Automatic annotation (TrEMBL):
tRNA processing keyword on record: no
Protein name, as recorded: LysR family transcriptional regulator, glycine cleavage system transcriptional activator
Species assigned in the record: Rugamonas rubra
Keyword DNA-binding: yes
Gene Ontology MF terms in the entry: DNA-binding transcription factor activity; sequence-specific DNA binding
Protein family (similarity comment): Belongs to the LysR transcriptional regulatory family.
InterPro entries cross-referenced by the UniProt entry: LysR-type_TF_proteobact-type, LysR_HTH_N, LysR_subst-bd, WH-like_DNA-bd_sf, WH_DNA-bd_sf
GO biological process: DNA-templated transcription
Amino acid sequence: MRRLLPLSALRAFEAAARHGSFKQAANELGVTPTAVSHQIRLLEEFTGLSLFERQVRKVVLTDAGAELYPVLRDGFNTFETALQRLGTPQARRRVIISTTNAFMARWLAPRVAGFRKLHPEIDLELHASDQAVDLGPDDADLAIRYGRGPYPGMVAEPLFTDCFAPVASPQLGPIGQADLDRFPLIDFKWCHDHPLNPTWKNWFAAAGLPWKARHGQLLFSDEGHAIQAALAGQGIALLSLELVADDIAAGRLTRPFGPSLPGHTYHLVRSAGHMPGPHVDSALEWLRGQIHGPANPSGRPAETDDFAQP
């Protein structure tokens, strides 16, 4: 059976050994120097050892005291650390994900409830911007960037390449290519000019139709606003079929005619110089699992795609 240890005496000894003074130990413990001296005497009787040499105005550890002190010091430090950890709520993990405004609103935001169900212990901070943000331990952990790369200093994996096609609200009624002059063409400004951007001019070339300056064209600075205009029946829009997949499936938009144009590629990007923690790895795996299906409450991809890939 384990002997009952004189804990008060051990605490007094540890404080006196650390300070090299019974008086300073007494101040720390809130007792008198006489009480500390008494506790040390009890511990020496308990162990049968002399633990201190009493000198004028100070005490010095004996060989036995010097061997006992670090054991008690480390033990009390361990007790304190464990009690602080048990008494302090654990800090929640957070993952910061950055992506474009339209992708955030139309693709990522509708899916985050699924992540919360799978990982309630992780908080998501979502940052929407059409300008690239810094990645690293003090910035965003992950980014979903749209373009052709490359991304120097980054680990980038392609997620998917979308395609663009004319879409319109059923409010406009049955329409075909011959109706292009009847309705405004809804378009938006691309952040970066590129000859392969899926623009209406490039679409007309792919359809074998002459391009000319058009009257009544609606040009937006934001892709999300162009989508809203199409949903409101304001005209025919050339939009990413990925971002309007749910609207087409629900009948809020239709694809009245072709052809479709390949878009750019969405890349999952993180800093090459920063190793992700387990919480970031969880977000990475979840994002990869979301690629091939529309949003659903389970946070898992559907079995089939509701949109055409280029």
